[in-house]
Amino acid sequence: MDSQIEPRMDAFKTGSRAPLFFMHIPKTAGMSMRQYLNNQYQADEICPAERWQDLLDLERDVGSYRLVRGHFRYNLRQLVAPDACVLVVLREPLRRTVSALRHLSRDPNFHRTHEMAKHLTLGEMIRDPEIMALQRDVQARFLCASRPATDVTAYLEGARSCNLDADAGDRENPPAFQLAADRLEAIEFVGITEELGSLVSTMAEEMNFHPPVHFPVINENPERVDPLLGLTGPELDMVRAHNTVDLQLYDFARKMLNGRSFDRSMRQMVRSGVYRVPPDSFAIEMSGIIPGSGWYHAESAGQTSWRWTGPGRRFTLEVPLRQDVSYRFDMTFSDPRPSGPGDLAVEINDYPMAFELWSEGELYRCVFVIEQALLAKSEGFCRIQIDTGETIQLSPSDIRLLGISVRRVEFICLEP
Prior knowledge:
Layout: E1 20-23, H1 30-38, H2 52-55, E2 67-70, E3 85-90, H3 93-106, H4 114-117, H5 122-126, H6 129-133, H7 138-144, H8 149-159, H9 177-186, E4 189-192, H10 196-207, H11 233-241, H12 244-272, E5 282-284, E6 295-301, E7 304-309, E8 314-320, E9 326-334, E10 345-348, E11 351-353, E12 356-360, E13 363-370, H13 372-377, E14 381-387, E15 405-414
Parallel strand pairs: 1-2, 1-3, 3-4
Antiparallel strand pairs: 5-15, 6-7, 7-15, 8-14, 9-13, 9-15, 10-11, 10-14, 12-13
């Protein structure tokens, strides 16, 4: 019988994805993220190096790979593809530090100081100055790394034969919050371990990655308990003292991520036509839909309508505005509190805002300018948050907690 040649089977094809640099800070679910990312790129597109020392033996330039991922600091950005997006994941600093200490004591491959830590209790590690020096503001240190890449490579190359403990972070200046925050704002994809799902969904949409049905969990604490469980107050204070910059940075990151989520939602509403950018000055109708949160239903008497804010002390207005002009915001309201609105505070896109406040009989006006430069930075999307300072119960018959009663809100174009 003549042998038959089976027809050649075509392989499933995928298009090329945009280049990405994943700056993996230890103990931030990075191994799970790496496994997910590895399946989005062809093997020859993935840089095999996972530490700066590994780059010394690469046969190709770092910039020729489409995925670079590992325990690299921010200054490696000088070597990756110029059009590469950057990804970083942060973790609540105290839990990240304690998780790193627990991993250090159980895994001989985690860090060279394992020999020092393997017989110590967690409390003893926290009290060891040499061990804790390596855990000081780790996340900010990764973001603040600024030495030129060529200097780092030369230093590590020279240390190969005489200093096996040489690290890419040696000789860096202590981290500064503002530098870390500025760099975090410039990074395209920022997430926190506590909310990885939203980060992966965003990346999948914007980078054309395959959205995972099952996200891998690797290198997790096998006991799966809160890393801080069992620590004494003094021990927590010691860990906190080693994370002063990281704690500030983490709070900043959470606010920044809330702002980015807001921007995405607003863009979608503008694209769908639910919200339209007004071409000129406009007012918010108190009897209609309020584009914000923290408002009660509309009330009216005759031709006048108003909206109470509450039950929380903060309320928001979130609107798409033009990017080429500034606006004067003018809000008229009444305040039932005996002390009046003296505690009023305003933020625009999480930035504190100075304002003018004056009374007109029984009413007050809050006025400030929304600068064009601020709107250009956020592509015109504007979140105004106003803090009334406290809420009150107006009468025993009204069980609501009330802030202020807003009568009119105007956005007035200030043409250049």
